[in-house]
Amino acid sequence: MSVTSTTVERPSFLKSQIGGLPRPFWALWGGTLVNRLGTMVMPFTGVYLTQSRGLSITAAGLVMGVFGAGSLLSQLVAGVLADRIGRRATLSGGMLATAVCMLALGYSTSLPGILASMFALGLVIDVYRPASTALVADLVPAKERPRAYGLLFWAINLGYSVGMTAGGWLAGQGFLWLFWIDALSGVVFAVLVWRAVPETRPAARQASGGFGMVLRDRVMVGFTLVALGNALVYSQTMTMLPVAMTDVVKLTPKEFGLAMALNGVLIVVVQPLVSGWLGRRDPARMLALGLVVMSAGFAMTAYVTNVAGLAVTIAIWTAGEIATAGIAGAIVAALAPAELRGRYSGLFGFAWSLAAVLAPLLGGPLLELGPKALWFTTAAVGVVSAAGLLLLGPAIRRR
């Protein structure tokens, strides 16, 4: 009797985690994984510019700033394209353009050529994001969207973890390998989506114009501001956290890298197990809870003095990150009319691009004041964003 019960329950548990999603979604998921497995250039861009191309730190900073300027426009332009020419065409075209720009950057030797290639790369590298977000909203029923977006988040982290490891080894063999593998993974993603994912743009009501209709949606504008706060908090993991731990706490790069690996391990192991359960909770409240947990982890970072302490704080803010995975995308999908999903997703993505630019500009001066100034301010931004979510909660639930 107990054996029969076990055999019945186990498949239902597996189905609750990965079952019930349409086949085109899994093609999108597979393409996302392949693309992230090949994402090797961006984490090593600074090293490439200074070591392989011989640029000064100032010139490398200029190049990265040009990339950031392109990325600010990227998702806004892509949001309009996803609604006008279609999700599939925008995603596939964006990935092919990214592959071309990757190779152009890899073979550029002069500063003007590198600047032009980096701006173009920034302009196209995130074109796929609004289209991908809109595709999931079009393909997946509302109640399953948090789980679907969470699974995409898992694929991104799994692929990135492997890609980073392989990229570090390949960089020693020659940086050009990174550009070719990154470009090839983009082409595979484009072809897979073009062949296996149908066009889902609503045919009856194709909205014209730009972002006027989106900006008139006060709930979406409020949620975008909350997303900006969330992104400012999370962006510190890639901007000021490495600086604070190596320059202030005096951890070695190896110790810091070992501690940060915990973030990827926890996401890869835990996130698929809880995505179904998280998807059944109220999205605004769960996202607010995740932000508060993340804020607590970053506030504790002010007291880190060794690698064990850093690992504890990473585990805490990673738990908050897991709690928020997939929920923000589901909220955007719920707020957006079907014919405007690309633009709504583009505005949401713009908040993250803007945070990537603002986080080091704000975090640097705060860190100079001291670790407590940086991490307590970061935590305060997260708590204020969580409070904003709770205020928006009733309006989000009505949608």
From TrEMBL:
It is a multi-pass membrane protein. Its main location: membrane. It is found in: Cell membrane. Keywords: Cell membrane, Membrane, Transmembrane, Transmembrane helix, Transport. It holds the Pfam family MFS_1. InterPro entries: MFS, MFS_dom, MFS_trans_sf, MFS_Transporters, Sugar_transporter_CS. Residues 24-397 form the Major facilitator superfamily (MFS) profile domain. The chain crosses the membrane at residues 25-49, 55-82, 89-108, 114-137, 149-171, 177-197, 218-236, 256-274, 286-304, 310-335, 347-367, 373-393. This is MFS transporter. The lineage of its organism: Bacteria, Bacillati, Actinomycetota, Actinomycetes, Streptosporangiales.
